[in-house]
Amino acid sequence: MTEAATNLAHPQAASAGLFSRIAAGSVFPVVSILAGLVIVWYVFAVILNGPFQRDLDRRAGETPGFVEFVGKTWSQPKPTLPAPHQVAANFFENTFLRKVTSNRSLVYHAWVTLSSTLLGFAFGTALGILIAVGIVHFTSLDRSLMPWIIASQTIPILAIAPMVVVVFAAIGITGVIPKALISTYLSFFPVAVGMVKGLRSPELMHLDLMHTYNASASQTFWKLRVPASVPFLFASMKVAVAASLVGAIVAELPTGAVAGIGAKLLSGSYYSQTIDIWAALVAGSVVAILLVTVVGIVGNIVERSMGGRPA
Amino acid sequence: MQALSDVDLTIKKGEFVSFIGPSGCGKTTFLRVIADLEKPTSGTISINGMTPEQARQARAYGYVFQAAALYPWRTIERNIALPLEIMGISGVDQKARIKRTMELVNLSGFEKKFPWQLSGGMQQRASIARALAFDADLLLMDEPFGALDEIVRDHLNEQLLELWKRTNKTICFVTHSIPEAVYLSTRIVVMSPRPGRVTDVIESTLPHERPLDIRESPEFLAIAARVRDGLRAGHSYD
């Protein structure tokens, strides 16, 4: 037989991606959009901080020029909207210049939040997979469980979180577990929905093939349904890990937690430390980006090892 | 809706039987009934004295689908190993069978490739190897080359005849190509639609040895003409 194999394994082509993208100029549009957003931010800082600054100037009997006025709106200690450089400076100072064990270090607070995020994410992923397996195998579970799962996600997490924390505290469980459970509550849903779809994704022909081999239900599950669901699992885990982080931060708000990004947000709002709040938000987003990226990388590695076509 | 009615047919061991007809004549349904992928509403089917269900449970046949239906996350050798794993065949025996069937379909050297790295014709050959791996006597093939181009198809037809002669399998082959049916078969079952039924059964007079150019011989053309007549009689051209 003489047909040629289409061997497309060219790792060099994949690694050249970043450089060729820079060369092709897709970096410039991205940078200019970001620059545009920063400019808009600065403009709004002037607009939002302006009234208070005018008030201050009137009391002090000063009449600053336009440039001086703008400069002042960008350097208030407790501005309505901090300017980007204020947030950046605060973030840099509290991330890199403090000992990570310090109560003022964002790394410390991020780590506290991250630990309950990861625990809750692990619980949530396991629970989601378990529910999906049940739903796929028993139609009664599909009918009975699915409406409750969907309903559970319509309840505001802010309403649930304090109750969970209070109930667990009453039976002597405090600390990371109640926080992780709130993360679980948010993260099991995307995994359950994604895995139900993934476990049902095999084509009819692939299922027929198993039938002709007289394969048992468990053989069909492990050799066909599970591998077919892997891409769906990682796609939903990306959503779930971000939801876990939101859950962990929200869980820190009502618990009187002294550490964590949520606690940092809360104390910032008590003392009107708007710059601290924004810096904590930035820290939260950095953690979220890292988590989603890590899940994405792991997903790519797994899919590549399962014969995924290099993109 | 009735897809098939009044089909009465006996297939002998070692035969190569083609089922030909336009789409909707129930030829695929017929094959799926034999494979116990579909239940007949009435009538009986017996495979070596077994019902289709018993035959399936005894793993008495290998089935080749219209598409290769390889699992994309398994390499070619792991795909061929799939039925062997399910049937609980030992690792050493698995290796030997994979090697033998891959040689049989001329795919040696592609063991570690993933399906997407192979051409359509090679994928279909891998799926034939998978159906042969567990040594069922009966091979059911549902338009296995229907999605491939003419050149590849000619080639695979030649290879399939070769393989059939070497393995002595009984093959039921569904197709909608007249030359393919005439070239491959010892017997051709002509079917017609609405409702699906058999209009003619033709015993091939072609010799066992069939080079590709046998298709220009008067004998070949005579059989092809009779197949066409059978299709016309069943209003397949209406």
UniProtKB/TrEMBL annotation, chain A:
It is found in: Cell membrane. It is a multi-pass membrane protein. The chain crosses the membrane at residues 27-49, 106-136, 148-173, 239-266, 278-302. One of its GO terms (cellular component) is plasma membrane. GO terms for biological process: transmembrane transport. CDD domains: TM_PBP2. Keywords: Cell membrane, Membrane, Transmembrane, Transmembrane helix, Transport. InterPro entries: MetI-like (IPR000515), MetI-like_sf (IPR035906). Residues 106-299 form the ABC transmembrane type-1 domain. PROSITE patterns: ABC_TM1 (PS50928). Pfam families: BPD_transp_1. The keyword Transmembrane applies. Belongs to the binding-protein-dependent transport system permease family. This is ABC transporter permease.
